[in-house]
Amino acid sequence: MISFFAFLREILKTVLLWSALLVAVVAAIDWMVRTRRISPFGPIARFFRKYVDPLLEPVERRVIRAGGLPASAPWWALAAVVVVGIVLLALLDFVGGLVADVMVGVSSGPGGLARLAIFWAFTLLRIAILVRVIASWLPIGPFSPWVRWSFTLTEPILGPLRRVIPPFRQIDLTPLIAFFGLGILEGLVRGWLQ
Q1: Would you say 26 and 52 are in contact if contact means Cβ atoms under 8 Å apart?
Q2: Distance of CA 167 to the CA centre of its chain
Q3: Same domain for 35 and 87
Q4: Domain edge (last residue) among 75, 107, 139
Q5: Helices (H) and strands (E) in the chain, counts
Q6: DSSP assignments along 57-92, one per residue
Q7: Are 122 and 134 part of one and the same domain?
Q8: Does the model's pTM come out above 0.85?
Q9: Residues lower than pLDDT 50 in the chain
Q10: pLDDT value at position 18?
Q11: What pLDDT, in 10s, does the model give residues 49-86?
Q12: Deepest in the core among 85, 89, 101, 125, taking most CB within 10 A?
């Protein structure tokens, strides 16, 4: 099963690489057409206006709404392809690791399943802390449906820590301390279970 995920990852990586290269070439040519480095009346420009520009229209609208130039839309499309590729590869790695963990946990009996559940619980708490920290950097409120779960999971940990640890120059260090503290606690619990 693990070799299947490795094989699938290699195929996906190859497809994404070639897709990104193709989009990079298309973005470069479209940018040259948009900035008139290529004649806007030539066959290449007509082809891009007819077939490529309609595909880039949603990206162009977002770029214009954000205050950018329409000529940068192809580069933003390339950035989106790269980010989506990275997310897909990370998601595939995550699912492959999840399947591998479940297989090891099931083959190890009840103790293996207990260790797996503890590992997942601590991992979920650490992810929740990371989401909460990143959400604090963005204009996202704690009651947003995207991050509410992270506040619900981490507040029982961070609230008591805030009462003990004062902020350092208006920087809340409790998420960092909780993140590393969870790692230490997980190591102790895992050592106790073995």
Answers
A1: yes
A2: 29
A3: yes
A4: 107
A5: 7, 0
A6: HHHHHHHHHTT--GGGHHHHHHHHHHHHHHHHHHHH
A7: yes
A8: no
A9: none
A10: 94
A11: 889 889 888 988 988 888 888 888 888 889 989 999 99
A12: 125
